[in-house]
Amino acid sequence: MDLTFNFYIGATPEEVWQILVSDEGVKQTFYGCTLQSTFEIGSDYAYVGPGNDGDDTVHVYGKILALEKNRTFSYTEHAGPSYRANHAELETRVTFTLELVGACTKLTLVHDHWPVDHPSYANSQQHWPMILSNIKSYAETGKTLDFGF
C-alpha cells in the first residue's frame, strides 16, 4: 500500500533541496502552491495555493517529522479541510530523501502509513509522479511540464 518513487535528476542535492523548500521551487513544481512553515521539527506546515477555496486553499497540511538540509524532509500529511470532512483523522506520512549518485541526485519519495480505504490514495498515486516529474524537469531545464490543467 506504500507509494514509493525513485527519480534520478541531473542536478545536485542542494539544487533539488531548494526546489523542495523554496517559495519559487515549490510554486513552480507543486501546482502554484507555496509551502508555509518555519521548517523546524515538530512545526506545522501547509501547502497553500489556488484551489477549492480560492488562492489561499490549504491543499495538504501536517507536522514536520524530520528535516536534514539537502538530505531528508519528512512530514505527516492530511488533506486540506475543503477536500475531506474528516481530514484531521486521515493522516499519512511523506518522506523525501536525496542522495548523490555519481553526478546526479536520486530523489526517493515514500508516502506511507496509509489507513485502510483512505480516500486520497488513488489521487496521490496519480499526482506524485507528475509532481516528481516537474521537480526533475525544473531542476534540469528551469521549466516545468504542461499537464493541461
TrEMBL record:
CDD domains: SRPBCC_CalC_Aha1-like_GntR-HTH
Signal peptide per UniProt: none
Location of the Activator of Hsp90 ATPase homologue 1/2-like C-terminal domain: 11-140
Organism domain of life: Bacteria
SUPFAM superfamilies per UniProt: Bet v1-like
InterPro entries to which the protein is assigned, alphabetical: ASHA1/2-like_C (IPR013538), START-like_dom_sf (IPR023393)
Similarity comment text for this entry: Belongs to the AHA1 family.
Name used for this protein in its record: Polyketide cyclase
